[in-house]
Amino acid sequence: MAGNTNVLKWEMDHGHKNIDTTRPWTLKPYHELECPQLKQIKTEVLNWLEKNLPDYKTKKGFWHRIDYKDLARKCPSILEWCKFIRVPAREISIALLTEAMAGTGVPLHVGAKPLIIKINIPICNTNDVYTEWYDIPQDVLNGLPITKNPFGESIIDLDDLDNTVADTYPRIVRYEMSDYPIIFNSQIPHRVVVGKNAKFPRILISVIPIKDPVHFLAH
Ligand SMILES: [Fe+2]
After folding, report:
1. 94: which strand partners?
2. Distance (Å) from CA 164 to ligand 1 centroid
3. Rounded to an integer, what is the distance from CA 37 to the centroid of its chain?
4. CB 212 within 8 A of CB 89
5. What domains does the chain contain, in order, with CATH numbers?
6. What CA–CA distance (Å, rounded) separates 136 from 169?
7. Are 188 and 66 in contact (CB under 8 A)?
8. How far is the CA of 189 from the centre of ligand 1 (A)?
9. DSSP secondary structure string, 60-91?
10. Which string of b and e fits 152-171 if b means at least 16 CB within 10 Å?
11. How far is the centre of ligand 1, averaged over its atoms, from the C-alpha of 190 (Å)?
12. Radius of gyration of the chain (CA)
């Protein structure tokens, strides 16, 4: 294990009331949210997918930019819920994990800056699929090349670390989504790992807030 990593700072900051968004590792990796509308959201989103993305069960690639204004209109319970948690949404996208991606999952990555927070809402087949956040020292991250994510935004290229990360750096947490949406820290390097009993397609929708609601991730 590498020494002197962000976890040390993370633990030192534990209980600290000040939120410093320039040091995303001082924020929690994720936080589960109440969602009384979840059943309705699932039904509406699956209906929308059947009509608007008929090949969603076999598609390749994890993130799919969609006509989110249409999705929001046809699935009104999503924005109803955003109102419930008091987080105005800027955009909604779909994340699909199909059988074709079972062997790889989603390799280690971070979200595009300056945004820290994303909100994921489980739609189906989230069991036995895990999101793992890793504590990689900032000087290692600073030395990595920059690449573009599928949306053309600049991000740190963590591909070369994906095979060795589990043996090299401390895992902060491993999380299996259940029946709660999560608000999560996309600036801590994370990846999606698929278990042997996972079912496909695993579907979630991701809400990008207008402003980072970082208070949810304060310790
Ligand atoms: Fe991510």
Report:
1. 64, 205
2. 18
3. 20
4. no
5. 6-11+33-52+61-210 (2.60.120)
6. 6
7. no
8. 8
9. -SSEEE--HHHHHHH-HHHHHHHHHHT--EEE
10. eeebbbbeebbeebeeebbe
11. 6
12. 17
The tens digit of pLDDT for each residue in 186-203 reads 999 999 999 999 999 999
SS3 label, residue 154:
strand
| Angstrom distance (rounded) from CA 156 to CA 187 | 10
At position 19, the amino acid (one-letter code) is I
**Structure tokens belonging to residue 153:** 């935004």
- The structure tokens listed for 117 are 């927070």
Q: What is the pTM of this model?
A: 0.88
The pLDDT, as a whole number, for residue 18 is 52
Cα–Cα distance for residue pair 139/203, rounded to 1 Å:
34
Q: Please compute, for residue 17, the number of CA atoms within 13 A of its CA located in the half-sphere on the CB side.
A: 0
Residues in the chain: 219
Cα-to-centroid distance, 106 and ligand 1 (Å) = 8
Distance 17 CA to ligand 1 centre (A): 26
Tell me the CA–centroid distance for residue 185 and ligand 1, in Å: 9
Q: What are 140-184's pLDDT values in tens digits?
A: 999 999 999 877 889 999 999 999 999 999 999 999 999 999 999
Ligand 1 centroid to Cα of residue 186, in Å, is 6
Structure tokens belonging to residue 190: 């994370």
Q: What is the distance in A from the centroid of ligand 1 to the CA of 16?
A: 26
